[in-house]
Amino acid sequence: MESLSHAFKERSVHALKDETLQVALHRAKDGFAVKRAKAVEGLPEFDALRDRAVAIKNHTLEHLDHYLERYADAVERSGGTVHWASSAEDARRIVVDICRAADAKMITKGKSMVGEEVGVNGALEEAGFEVVETDLGEYIIQLAHEPPSHIIVPAVHKTRGQIADLFHENHAKYGLTRKLSEVPEMVNEARQVLRSKYLAADVGITGANFLIAETGTSVIVTNEGNGDLTCSLPRVHIVTAGIEKVVPTAEDASTLLRLLARSATGQDMTTYTTFSTGPKREGDPDGPEEYHVVLIDNGRSTMLADQFREMLRCIRCGACMNHCPVYGAIGGHAYGWVYPGPMGSVLTPLSVGLKEAGNLPNACTLNGHCAEVCPVRIPLPDLLRTLRHREYQLKLGLKPLRWGLAAWVWFTAHPRIYRIGTRVQARMLALLAGRKGRFTRMPLAGGWFKGGRDLPAPQGETFMAVWKRRQKDSAR
Amino acid sequence: MQWCDERMSEPSPRVPADGPGDRPRVGLFVTCLADIYRPNVGLAAVALLEKAGCVVEVPASQTCCGQPSYNNGDLAGAARTARQTIAAFEDCDYVVVPSGSCAGMLMDYPKLFEDQPRWRERAEAMAAKTHELISFLTDIRGLDAVTTRFSRRVTYHDSCHGLRALGIKEQPRRLLASVEGLELVEMADAEICCGFGGTFCVKYPEISGRMVADKASDISATGARVVLGGDLGCLLNIAGRLGREGNGISVYHVAEVLAGMADVPGLGDPTDSGGRAR
């Protein structure tokens, strides 16, 4: 997917002014956070599970080559085919080639963030295939020709009214012309449309929440059952997955599954957890004839080798964005690429470059809420700060900020001059503010006031001056 | 200076006495914001520490904790500032900071000297003896009550660094519960960031502005007339928004209330003196 992250500032301001978006965001605001808190409260061993999950992920990443090979062997043993894609381009080409070889026309898709990352849909449509997203949220944004704005609820930015309009516009061709207003009616109508697509599809593409090395199994979690239909009805099933999705055993996957839904939606388990291993065997009542796995690197092995390895523990639950006040204010589209919120602010610059996405790691108050809720304890604020350091070293940030910081550091290292400067500043500001006690505007400090706030004035003397005088007085 | 000693309330009788001569030497790192904007916070901190049986020192060569550099990626700059702070406080038994954010920064100093073993050692010693003010009073000095009076309905904003990095949540509430006449009403989303975030608030003012507007409406909804918190950065942001809204809610650092020194105008409130020295 093409990045629009360079325009983060403009896009975020636009998002703040978008009243419909704000309604949608406001409604979603507390839902997931409250549900997660309840789910965690109901599982006393949640923190112990997190520790185990971290250990599983760290161990796997430490030996990633070994587990990937084990996984690939197991897939081949079960009759499937493994394809290695080092770049997004590779991944697109591989998927298109498989679909061509299968002589496919219609392709159904389960929700796959790595699919969005490498731009599978665009490549398939360009190659002349009809692609239908089957996750309801993905289906909605596909109709709207928009990217997802959240990694687990891709259409969270849409209001019910907007969705009703989209269905009204797009479903007439199926003879469904009634304008709907209730959620169950809309879900039913989408189901009705999608059912015919499932049956007609030649290829089904899903992502993977986990890949189990010992068995060659891919695991997906859904709440709509669309994943099952996508991977079992078509002739060909393609799994697209990042290389970091592999875990050693089914037991390990089970540990991570216990964390995933609780962290994501506050459910104990998702409604469906689907395990698929290889194509249909002799005697199986159903299943695909061909089973392909596309293992995608696309920058992950670079992350594995540098300071950002911990990011590869991410299980894509979305808890960080559900608890991020910046995400809550502007939604996911402002971030400009596939992954929004805190995890996206780490991943995006690593994928599309700091020059393109330098705003993302900076657009964070380092409040730490994301790290607090992360099921695999990724120190997101620290990683964001590391990216800021990298940006600083590459001299990519704002020049005036660099100069300002350099001047401030010089002052902090010269206490006598610092004392004089702060005394003058405190006194001047207090005098200028007068009895009002605050400023409503000030030259050179426009940023502060742009936030719709006044600036309280200092009391007038610095503490250090008061303290010095007090020491003198008491000595007398 | 008239907003200090004579208005202090009586010390709490429940300060632990570990025995004569056991008065730790506490270095007060006042923070640049309290130094410049709110000396009353520094004086309140001194008063509270003295009542908790500490000998308070204020090293004259202290400046800033280095967060502006640290959080903007200038680690070398942050290290330069950190060396200044480390040297200034080396002789103290403890370093106490009336800010969770700046205290957290001091505790992070070892990260700045990974390749400099000698400085790293000094930074580790600094980090080990650094505490945020309120949690120092309760957790280290065993203070669990004050004897001050503040007959107002207040709400409390949990600043993120104090809350998440240092686990400060219950300590200020415990002490506030002992303030005579004070009624604490919790706001919705007290643990959600106010949108200050250091330079974030000027780099992304529109987002920051939305966050603090949400915070202000949660505050207003409590019916409290006063907001308290433990970090001046957040409090300046919140006071700035409440002042713009003009709804007459005052903002104080929690130390000012606990020390009985909140009888000066709140942050950004109108003042009789007009900033003139006294």
Short description:
With 476 residues, chain A is an alpha/beta fold.
Describe this structure in words.
The complex is a heterodimer of chains A (476) and B (278). By secondary structure, chain A is α/β, with parallel strands linked by helices. Chain A has two domains: 43-301, NagB/RpiA/CoA transferase-like (Rossmann fold, 3-Layer(aba) Sandwich); 401-475, no CATH class. Helices cover 54% and strands 11% of the residues of chain A. Chain A has 25 helices and twelve strands. In chain A, strand 5 (210-212) and strand 6 (217-222) form a beta hairpin. Chain A is elongated and about 100 Å long. The N and C termini of chain A lie far apart (73 Å). The relative contact order of chain A is 0.13. The model of chain A has no long low-confidence stretch (mean pLDDT 96). Chain B is α/β, with parallel strands linked by helices. Chain B folds into two domains: 5-9 and 23-139, Glutathione S-transferase Yfyf (Class Pi), Chain A, domain 2, CATH 1.20.1050; 145-258, Rossmann fold, CATH 3.40.50. Chain B has 13 helices and eight strands. Chain B has helices at residues 32-37, 39-51, 67-71, 75-88, 100-108, 117-128, 133-140, 160-166, 170-177, 200-203, 205-221, 232-245, 254-258; strands at residues 25-28, 55-57, 94-97, 130-132, 153-157, 183-184, 226-229, 250-253. Chain B is globular, with a radius of gyration of 18 Å. Chain B starts with 24 loop residues before the first strand and ends in a 20-residue tail after the last helix. The model of chain B is unreliable at 1-20 (pLDDT under 50).
